[in-house]
Amino acid sequence: MDLGLTGKRALVMSSSRGLGLACAQALAAEGAHVLLTGRSEDKLAEAVASINASGPGRADFVVADLTSGDVVDTVLQAAQEFLGGVDILVNNTGGPPPGRMVEADPAVLAAQFDTMVMTVATLTSRVLPAMQEQGWGRVITIGSSGVIQPIPNLGLSNAIRSALVGWSKSLSNDVAADGVTVNMLLPGRIHTERVDELDENASRKSGKSLDDVRVASKATIPAGRYGTVEEFGAVCAFLASRQASYVTGSLIRCDGGAIKSV
What we know:
Layout lengths: L8 E4 L5 H12 L3 E6 L2 H14 L3 E6 L7 H12 L5 E4 L14 H29 L2 E6 L12 H21 L4 E8 L5 H14 L3 H10 L9 H12 L10 E4 L8
Parallel strand pairs: 1-2, 1-4, 2-3, 4-5, 5-6, 6-7
């Protein structure tokens, strides 16, 4: 199936590894020109080289730190330089420290909210006008299954990412008639470095072996396994596609059935 992404210009945030990189790779595989961002120049350069060697799309990168006050200006300047504009925006941020909400430091909550919500909202507001003017655009925000079913010991993530749900849905209503779709993509246990870090943290806190933690985690997933980054990236590419033009204001799960609600 041709997803109609050849020549589309995609800005993928926090894409030097994990879910962001998977989305960038999937979009480039469909012919998009992708701009990767992240803090590690070495990882970004390696990822871009791999994408450009694979084709058919191509990739560039800009070093940008989401916690920096000028991150939005930095990535948009690079997007204009390398892409000439943004047709597809994939909002992605790292996750906050694990822990129970009752133990959360309000100062950490405020700082993480600024990075994970305000940066996303500001960046999106800057690229939307051009999407609306051309009558086509895609805004995909990577969230977490915790916005539907709160995840134990991830209190900050559950709270902060939930704010993006109301923002995304409200925004989708405002721009749908302009040909711009706005959706959230919710990963479950996709096997990334972040999931490895969370499993290792759970192992330390519980005193159980890492293997036992993973076996117990997989037992809660109807699919019986962690998802792959390739599976996740494929869903992102579909949401960006021509065929998904009537999918907007949605929370799309990629979780192997782990979320218990209907």
